[in-house]
């Protein structure tokens, strides 16, 4: 139990009551125009994938957090995190308890020197963005990116948080629930970890891509446009599309904006990959892309894979 604003112990709130309050809070917020992204945990397992599990593991290895984390796990499993938003260096959440509380978390960006060290240690070992985001990494790379204090996951000294609840503890159960919610969200959107730390996941594969392209040109005498980009970027790619992207076509093409792609669920790093591979074409306009004949199918296939 937590304390009320007047310092008295708050009455016990059952799981059923908490879920009902959470549902009521979401409904009220939607009426006000807020697009809530609740955290939904299947069974008791908060995270299933490499990135989600490593985020939770990282939280649990710090003694700073050990006293409050168990209550946070209970809250997130009960569906109490009714909204979770992750952006550059920030996490905001609404967590339902005896009432709905606002949680704000600030995470320092990864230090440039540390990021360069990680890039150097992983150089040539990450084959594609799809492999990276799905956690299909060599053991040596996993050790580097998940290492406490020097990997991609923040240490306590890099995290600042606050909650609107009256609990005077450094980390209340609502903050703990929100932090566990991040692990759950990384299962579906691992790219959010890189957004949170203000780094570009594509940089982790640039060395491998560059080396592969140079080797392909040396072995076959082909130029960049003829390289096997579908293998390099882990996506289905029609060779004809590469030719379209390489040869500046003068005929009018259908376009799509960055905003439309974001609304459909396409993250920034995929747009960058698709520009290189020919799924999207440079239009000459800011934040506007040309579409090749196969583009819509490639986008639909990608979104279907993410939904599975």
From TrEMBL:
Q: Which Pfam families does this entry report, sorted A to Z?
A: SWIM
Provide this UniProt record's keywords sorted from A to Z. Answer: Metal-binding, Zinc, Zinc-finger
InterPro entries named in the record: Znf_SWIM
- Give the molecular function GO annotations: zinc ion binding
Q: Which PROSITE patterns match?
A: ZF_SWIM
What is the protein name given in its UniProt record?
A: SWIM-type domain-containing protein
Quote the PANTHER family the UniProt record gives.
SLR1429 PROTEIN
| SWIM-type domain ranges (all copies) | 142-183
């Amino acid at each position: 139990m937590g304390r009320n604003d007047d310092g008295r112990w708050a009455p016990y709130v059952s799981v059923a009551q908490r879920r009902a309050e959470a549902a009521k809070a979401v409904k009220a917020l939607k009426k006000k125009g807020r697009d809530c992204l609740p955290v939904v945990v299947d069974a008791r397992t908060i995270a299933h994938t490499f990135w989600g599990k490593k985020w939770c593991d990282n939280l649990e290895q710090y003694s700073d957090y050990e006293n409050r984390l168990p209550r946070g796990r209970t809250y997130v499993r009960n569906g109490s995190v009714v909204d979770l938003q992750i952006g550059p260096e920030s996490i905001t959440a609404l967590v339902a308890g005896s009432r709905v509380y606002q949680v704000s978390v600030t995470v320092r960006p990864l230090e440039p020197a540390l990021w360069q060290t990680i890039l150097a240690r992983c150089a040539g070992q990450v084959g594609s963005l799809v492999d990276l985001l799905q956690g299909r990494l060599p053991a040596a790379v996993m050790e580097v990116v998940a290492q406490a204090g020097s990997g991609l996951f923040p240490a306590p000294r890099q995290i600042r948080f606050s909650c609107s609840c009256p609990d005077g503890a450094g980390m209340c159960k609502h903050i703990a629930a929100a932090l566990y919610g991040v692990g759950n969200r990384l299962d579906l959107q691992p790219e959010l970890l890189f957004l949170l730390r203000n780094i570009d996941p594509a940089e982790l594969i640039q060395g491998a891509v560059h080396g592969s392209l140079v080797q392909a040109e040396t072995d076959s005498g082909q130029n960049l446009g003829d390289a096997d980009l579908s293998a390099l970027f882990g996506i289905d790619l029609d060779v004809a599309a590469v030719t379209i992207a390489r040869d500046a076509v003068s005929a009018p093409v259908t376009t799509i904006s960055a905003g439309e792609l974001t609304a459909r669920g396409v993250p920034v790093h995929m747009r960058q990959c698709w520009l290189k591979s020919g799924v999207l074409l440079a239009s000459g306009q800011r934040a506007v892309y040309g579409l090749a004949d196969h583009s819509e199918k490639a986008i639909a296939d990608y979104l279907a894979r993410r939904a599975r």
